[in-house]
Structure formats: C-alpha cells, structure tokens
Amino acid sequence: MNGAVPVGRVAGVRVELHWSVLGIVVLVAAGLAAYQLPRALPGHSALGYAVSGTATAVLLVGSLLAHETAHAVVARRNGVAVEGITLWLLGGLARLRGEARSPGAELRIAVVGPVTSAALAVIFGLLALGVARFGGALAVAVLSYLAVLNAVLAVFNLVPAAPLDGGRVLRAALWRWRGNRFQAAVWSARAGLGLGYLLIAAGFVQLVAQGAEGLWWAVLGLFITSTAVAEERQARAGLALRDVRVRDVMSHPVETADGARTAEQFLRELRTEHAAYPVRGVDGSVDGLVSLRRLRSLTAAERERTTLREAACPVDQVPAAEPDEPLADVLPRLGGFAEGRVLVFTAGRLCGIVSPSDISRSLAEHGASFVPRVRDDPRPPPPDWWYPGQPRPG
C-alpha cells in the first residue's frame, strides 16, 4: 500500500504503518479528550483528558495489530504465506499470499481475528473492574472504552459478508457444504455487496438527519462494496478457469538474464523485449525476477553499477507454480507481487512463466475477466475496523 512505512516485525511478520493511521490516533484522542471524557467525567484537568485520550488511541492501534497478527500467525500455521500487516485509517490488513487449502483452514484463519478482539475486550473489561476498586476514574473510562471498541470490532467482523472475517467464515461453511470454494466466494462477495449498500444508505440517512456521524458509515460501506466487487470478480475468474492448468497458458521456453551483468549492459544488448526476465545465478539456478520498468527507472549512474541480481526481486518473493496446478489456484498469488508474474518450475527447473496477458487470453476464451490487485495498486485494503462514534461539535 502506497505511503506505508515498515516499523518492525511482530511474531516474525513485517508490520507497516500507513501515514493515515495517524487519523485513528487523532480522531480517537481528540474525540475523547475534547468531548466524551469531559462530558462523562467533568472536573479533571485538560492534561488528564489529553493523556487519557492519547493512551486510548495508542492501545486501540495495538488492539488492531493484535487482531491482524492473529490472522497472520494462524495463516502461516495453515500453509498460507504472509506478506505482512498494514495498519491504516480504517483499521488493518493481514496481507496473505495465496488462499487456504481447505474449508477448515479458511475457518481457522478467519475466526481467530474476532476471537482475539473478543479476548481483548474481556481483558480490558476485567482491568477496568480491577482499577475501579482503587478509584482512577479516567483510567477506568479508558479501559472500558477499549473493552467496548474491541467487543464491537469482534461482533462487526463476524457479520457474514466479505471482506469481513464473517464473510470468510461464510465462505468456509459454503465451501464445505457445496465443495466449490469459488462459488462460495461469489456468494460471500454478494453478501458483502448487500452489506455495503446497506451501510451507504444508512450513512446517508444519518448524515441528513444527524450530521457528520453518518459519513463514517457511508465511507465504510463504500470500501466494503468496492472490495466485495473485486472479490466477486476474482471468484468468477476462478470459476471460469477451474479446468485450466498452468501448463495450458504458460509461456515457454523462458528467456533468462545473467544476474552478473549490469543493468546498462543488459539494456544495451537487449534484442527481444519482454516485460520481465528471470535472473540466472552462477550455477544456472533462478535467483529472482527483474522487470524492464525497474531497470529503466534507474539513473544512468545506477545502471552502470547495479547488477541484475541486485535489481531483481528475490526468487523467494516471486510467486511460483507447477505445470499441473489449476490456474485458478494461482490467481490469488498475483495479488502480492508488483510484477504480476508467476514462475513455473518442474523438479526445481524453470520451465515456464505466466503473465497477466496469458491469464487474460485464457479468461477471454472462457468469457470472464480478471484484474490482479498488485502491491502498487493505489486502492486501500479492506477495512477491519471503523470508528462510528465520532462526536459532533457542541
């Protein structure tokens, strides 16, 4: 996601903060310090309200991180690679590279987030009860507020509609019932569309009747709707390609590039122009994938001193497939890789490459379409949290 800054790792998963995550901190801290806490607990100092509001905001961001980390950890334990976690204005997203291999794995990955939020709600609630015995009204208010927000997060995310966690639960149940995960994903996405439209309508009504609070519902509905549309499109593509194998669409033989050559040498001697090239190591194995777009973005001086191996995306970060795999299973892997390509290996040997154009041709033959959402996609990820309780001035 553009504008995201890496801040470290949690449980081995890379965590990034989008600049808009400051919106959570500002909205929650300002809403509590300036409006809610002074009204509920008058008589405290402005500094006390400010510290309480800021502490709540920071702990809320921590709660979102715990929610997404739970998704990521369980996904890895169920064989799904995790690219990282991004926190932003409307919540968080655990970026998974691929799909669950069974309905049970899908269910476990989906439900662990709400379970984590529910557990946090209980923990904050118990802490509030404990602190209340010793006074500290502001501390009790902070802990109570966090308990309520985590409880709301858990309940709302269990609504059976994609892209919410409840939508994943619905998809897992339908997948197990009907045996077709792509059709299950279509139904889950349709439920998401219905929820999104309902939130947009509710937000508009509230915006007219009560003011700015309705804007948050409408924005949330727009994000859910747009993400559900994308998920339905991908699911329908999977349905169309369920009988197509990777070998049927891959390009081969594959033209590779010597990783020891500099970018300038490679570009100067280029004869056949492809969008991306697998990079060979000293022993002939594949070290990574480099794109012409990446090479041409380098300055003249950088091209002279940068080797293709240094410019390439490492091979362990490039989506891979086997020739006999269903092409539908490969589609989700394109979503986490900016170059949108999959390398095809057999017995550890590179035998083909699949590009978006290869997939588009196959989809056109089957009457469907698919637009992979790559890392450079400017659209934000689906929200996992929202803030409906913004106070109105006055």
From TrEMBL:
Which cofactor does this sequence's record say it needs?
Zn(2+)
Region annotation Disordered: where it falls in the sequence: 369-394
Subcellular location(s) per record? Cell membrane
Q: According to the record, how does the cofactor bind?
A: Binds 1 zinc ion per subunit.
- Residue ranges occupied by any Peptidase M50 domain in the UniProt entry: 56-128, 139-186
- Output the Gene Ontology terms for molecular function: peptidase activity
Q: Which SUPFAM superfamilies has this protein been placed in? A: CBS-domain pair
GO BP of this protein: proteolysis
Has keyword Membrane? yes
- Pro residues: compositionally biased ranges: 380-394
Q: What is its main location?
A: membrane
The record's Pfam families line, in alphabetical order, gives:
CBS, Peptidase_M50
Q: Which residues form the CBS domain?
A: 246-297, 316-364
CDD domains xrefs: S2P-M50_SpoIVFB_CBS
TM ranges: 17-35, 47-67, 109-132, 138-164, 185-208
Please identify the protein, giving its name as recorded. Zinc metalloprotease
Stated membrane topology is: Multi-pass membrane protein
What's this protein's family per the entry? Belongs to the peptidase M50B family.
Q: Could you tell me the keywords of this UniProt record? A: CBS domain, Cell membrane, Hydrolase, Membrane, Metal-binding, Metalloprotease, Protease, Repeat, Transmembrane, Transmembrane helix, Zinc
